[in-house]
Write a structure and sequence with these properties.
The chain is mostly helical and 217 residues long. It is built from 12 helices and 2 strands. It has a two-stranded parallel ribbon with strand order 1-2. Strand 1, helix 3 and strand 2 form a beta-alpha-beta unit. Helix 6 packs across helix 7, helix 9 packs antiparallel against helix 10 and helix 11 runs antiparallel to helix 12. The longest helix is centred in the C-terminal third of the chain and has 22 residues. The chain is elongated.
């Protein structure tokens, strides 16, 4: 049906629409958009390539850009499930709040990088993270974010997830923990998770804190 509609379109009318779009430039008004904004880009789209949408996302306050690998100009027709999952995550209030908290705790750079790597295969997992981990657990007011950071650091050390630990050391600093407090948490893990685990954790945390100090300096 989509192909038929394009085939049956009047060529002159289609060309007129293209001319109108080519001259329709509202970039100077993007900063005034207050509504939560989602941009979905097909990574292989030659007509509206990802850099064009990235320019919009950079200008609209707190906009989210999702790139779909392998998708071209008509991503909803080419990979409808991935587009639908992305839209659901954006339109769902819990998922939207979860994405806000995720950005507040982990930082825009990390979340943007995770979103840019999203594929149809991982789209549902990304939705799960935003909806459940960040939209329900991290938004529960029973524990403060400082407390949740301390719990998270301990759990990551216990299971040896040191790449995730590095990310959450940064998050802990963003949540208000001092380097001394992070060190105290890791020292506690030496008792209950084992000295080798804590040794690796201290090495990871020291690297992250040194990078942070260098950046601030």
């Amino acid at each position: 049906m989509l192909v038929r509609d394009h085939a049956e379109a009047d060529p002159r009318a289609y060309a007129a629409c293209c001319d109108a779009l080519a001259a329709f430039d509202l970039r100077d008004q993007l900063a005034g958009i207050a509504a939560p904004t989602l941009l979905i880009a097909g990574r292989q789209d030659p007509a509206t390539p990802p850099p064009h949408l990235r320019e919009i996302a950079d200008a609209v306050p707190r906009a989210t850009l999702v790139e779909l690998p392998g998708a071209s100009h008509l991503a909803p027709a080419q990979c409808p499930e991935a587009v639908l999952t992305t839209l659901r995550a954006h339109l769902d209030g819990g998922a939207r709040r979860g994405m806000e908290v995720r950005r507040e705790v982990l930082g825009d750079t990390h979340v943007d990088r995770a979103q840019s790597r999203q594929t149809p295969f991982t789209a549902r997992f990304q939705d799960f993270i935003s909806r459940y981990a960040w939209g329900e657990i991290w938004t529960d007011p029973t524990l403060s974010r400082r407390e949740r950071s301390m719990i998270t650091l301990t759990a990551l050390v216990a299971h040896g997830h040191y790449d995730e630990l590095a990310m959450h050391v940064r998050a802990a600093r963003r949540n208000g923990l001092t380097p001394d407090e992070i060190g105290a948490v890791l020292l506690q893990t030496a008792v209950y998770c084992g000295v080798p685990a804590a040794n690796s954790a201290f090495a990871t945390a020291q690297r992250v804190l040194a990078e942070e100090a260098e950046t601030e300096g």
